[in-house]
Design brief:
By secondary structure, the protein is of the alpha+beta class. Helix content is about 40%, strand content about 30%.
């Protein structure tokens, strides 16, 4: 129809090799509008096509990888994410394009963390760290992340590439192992080994800073009779219920430790003798009101000691133990305070 034509096609050289051309054919008419000629312009776009195909292959490869990949421009706006990113974070591709990775922040890193990130990347260096990020649904995940700057031929940063590995399962297992190593299996309180570390650390801090700490050593009254009469499963239930009562009575910053058997140690942080005695009495009263379905009333004997100027850690614990012994000797179900 003698109209303008534009298209792309393959041509072949003399040696038989092919190349890709962008082809324009325009009709030429005389002053009367009669077609007289055609002008054909061909542009070799083989290199452009090669690069485009290479980029498509690269994009498909990045999309196929099982680890999340994010590409941003120099201003940290997202230009590419792969399918793994959407799978791990819950964000669809269309929702993140043009936004920044700050959308993943969980609030669990301080500003110094991000300042170090920016400083490292601005210097043209890779930044590697474990990030605690937040998914679209609000859940937290842990990620080993490597962020690398991409530079042009003049050394200017044009993009950043981030490759992430979701390590949430590994972190959960590690945290589980740490918890199991530090907590008593029956009561989920600190176990004695870890409790001794907590107590030692608190003692050193009190000595260094002049703080006041107190200890309450407590013991379930007549517990051997409970085991002998009702059996160990009932005894275990009593220990668990006592542990819950103690944990619900103390302040949030206090540590409750299963010291051994039916004995518990409570570390009162920043607590002088008088408020320590009041807290111990609340613990005693709460336990006295506790009724077990088989055993009936459960009571505690408690010994309180407040750190003295010349106490060693061993002497500190011994004073609480002596006070506990005095409470038992005085008839049990009472608080005794170490001099």
């Amino acid at each position: 129809q003698e109209r303008y034509f534009e298209g792309t096609t393959y041509n072949y050289r003399k040696d038989g090799s092919s190349y890709v051309v962008h082809w324009n054919i325009s009709p030429v008419r005389d002053e009367n509008g009669k077609l007289t000629h055609f002008v054909s312009v061909q542009q070799d776009i083989s290199e452009f096509v090669r690069v485009a195909r290479h980029n498509q292959l690269l994009a498909r490869a990045l999309d196929a990888t099982s680890d999340p990949v994010v590409v941003t421009d120099a201003h940290a706006h997202i230009t590419f994410v792969n399918s793994a990113f959407s799978r791990v974070t819950g964000y669809p591709v269309t929702e993140v394009m043009g936004k920044t990775p700050a959308m993943l922040r969980s609030g669990q890193h301080d500003e110094a963390f991000y300042a170090n990130l920016r400083k490292t990347l601005t210097a043209g260096k890779d930044f590697r760290a474990t990030f605690i990020n937040r998914r679209r649904d609000g859940s937290i995940y842990h990620a080993e992340q490597s962020i690398s700057p991409v530079m042009d031929e003049k050394g200017r940063i044009t993009h950043f590439v981030s490759v992430t590995k979701d390590i949430s399962d590994r972190v959960e297992k590690e945290q589980g192992l740490i918890h199991d190593a530090s907590h008593d299996t029956l009561t989920d309180l600190y176990n004695r080994r870890f409790g001794e570390q907590v107590l030692s650390s608190s003692f050193r801090q009190a000595r260094a800073l002049g703080g006041v700490i107190s200890l309450i050593l407590c013991d379930i009254d007549h517990f051997k009779q409970v085991n002998d009469r009702f059996g160990h499963p009932t005894g275990d239930r009593v220990i668990v219920n006592v542990a819950k009562a103690l944990r619900h009575t103390v302040r949030g910053r206090d540590a409750v430790i299963r010291w051994g058997g039916e004995e518990f140690l409570v570390l009162l942080d920043d607590c002088p003798a008088e408020p320590g005695q009041q807290l111990a009495e609340r613990m005693r009263a709460r336990l006295e009101a506790l009724q077990d379905e088989e055993v009936g009333r459960i009571t505690l004997s408690l010994g309180l000691a407040t750190l003295a100027a010349d106490d060693t850690l061993e002497q500190f614990i011994e004073r609480a133990d002596t006070a506990l012994y005095a409470a038992k000797q005085a008839g049990r179900n009472r608080v005794s305070v170490a001099p």
